[in-house]
Amino acid sequence: METLTNEILSQTIRIRPEESHKGTYGRVCLVGGNDHFGGAILMATEASVYSGAGLNTTLTDSSNFVSLHARMPEAMVADFTNHAELTDLVSSANTVVVGPGLGTTSQSLSVLQTVFDTVTPTQTLIIDGSAITLVSEKSLKLPQANLVFTPHQMEWQRLSGIKIADQTDAANETVRQQLGGTVVLKSHQTKIYTPTGSYLNTAGTPAQATGGMGDTLAGMIGGFTAQFENQTNAVLAAVYAHSAIADELAKTQYVVLPTQIIHELPRFMHDHQH
Ligand SMILES: NC(=O)C1=CN([C@@H]2O[C@H](COP(=O)(O)OP(=O)(O)OC[C@H]3O[C@@H](n4cnc5c(N)ncnc54)[C@H](OP(=O)(O)O)[C@@H]3O)[C@@H](O)[C@H]2O)[C@@H](O)CC1
Ligand SMILES: Nc1ncnc2c1ncn2[C@@H]1O[C@H](COP(=O)(O)OP(=O)(O)O)[C@@H](O)[C@H]1O
Ligand SMILES: [Mg+2]
């Protein structure tokens, strides 16, 4: 297993070409946030916007529209119960993030099933939070796409069937192969299992152990995969940047808030572009 260093940042974060426009930097569609977990999709969306994705659209419960627009006028919003809008917007995205705050009700399941029925093999689909729990509980058939799963250890236990104490590299890799795609197994030392190798993230701090931290990572992976060509490197760079920014802030802070990491992203990415 290879340990990630800040080299992954300069390998991934490109100096923006002069001749470019918002379309050059990708379209991200974020799906989640029910009437209880609006904050989760808000943080995921903000993370994608601040990562530099060119166009961001959030499909969520309509009760989240006002708070989302108040924080982020840059993002577009639509109602995730509107089937036609959901399919249109998912179809036109480069990257789809599904799950932050989606919940596990029958409505959540129906939204997730529509996303799975709509994505195509050329798209990257990040499956996080409630979406992982739903796939596990309902034994959903996974779509053909570039899949990126972002479970914490309990979500991985649900999805893989491997108990937390038994989550060895060999066991995790076996299930990753069955699922296809990439698994970002989050913990105090996140491991990333990809089709071309496994990576250990030693950056990060217990100051990050607060709700919304994973929702933020899912949005960052969305923003990075939408605009950077090498999809594996984009995932690795997002994981590393999320922790490295937290490490910087934790030098003087007892706790690091997800939104503080988000707001550092434009400065941090500027410092590591190549
Ligand atoms: N502001 C918002 O809107 C927020 C909305 N959110 C949304 O809520 C939804 C549910 O997601 P969830 O992660 O909160 O719940 P769930 O999947 O039941 O997992 C928790 C269980 O797993 C266990 N556990 C074991 N190891 C673990 C580990 N390494 N990391 C974490 N947990 C670990 C843990 O053990 P315990 O804490 O009891 O020791 C507990 O039993 C999801 O859609 C998410 O996006 C949240 O992001 C919060 C902010
Ligand atoms: N002690 C810790 N050290 C380093 N990183 C941590 C620690 N605790 C949590 N994290 C990070 O915070 C994030 C938590 O993700 P998750 O549990 O999905 O949060 P949420 O669903 O509340 O947004 C992961 O990226 C994880 O690696
Ligand atoms: Mg989570």
From TrEMBL:
Keywords: ATP-binding, Kinase, Lyase, NAD, NADP, Nucleotide-binding, Transferase. Its cofactor is Mg(2+). One of its GO terms (molecular function) is kinase activity. Coiled coil: none annotated. AMP binds at residues 186-190, 214. The keyword Lyase applies. It holds the Pfam family Carb_kinase. (6S)-NADPHX binds at residues 40, 101, 152, 215. PROSITE patterns: YJEF_C_2, YJEF_C_3. Residues 5-272 form the YjeF C-terminal domain. It catalyses: (6S)-NADPHX + ADP = AMP + phosphate + NADPH + H(+); (6S)-NADHX + ADP = AMP + phosphate + NADH + H(+). GO terms for biological process: metabolite repair; nicotinamide nucleotide metabolic process. Its EC number is 4.2.1.136. InterPro entries: Carbohydrate_kinase_pred_CS, CARKD, Ribokinase-like. NCBIfam families: yjeF_cterm. Belongs to the NnrD/CARKD family. Homotetramer. Catalyzes the dehydration of the S-form of NAD(P)HX at the expense of ADP, which is converted to AMP. Together with NAD(P)HX epimerase, which catalyzes the epimerization of the S- and R-forms, the enzyme allows the repair of both epimers of NAD(P)HX, a damaged form of NAD(P)H that is a result of enzymatic or heat-dependent hydration. This is ADP-dependent (S)-NAD(P)H-hydrate dehydratase. The gene is nnrD.
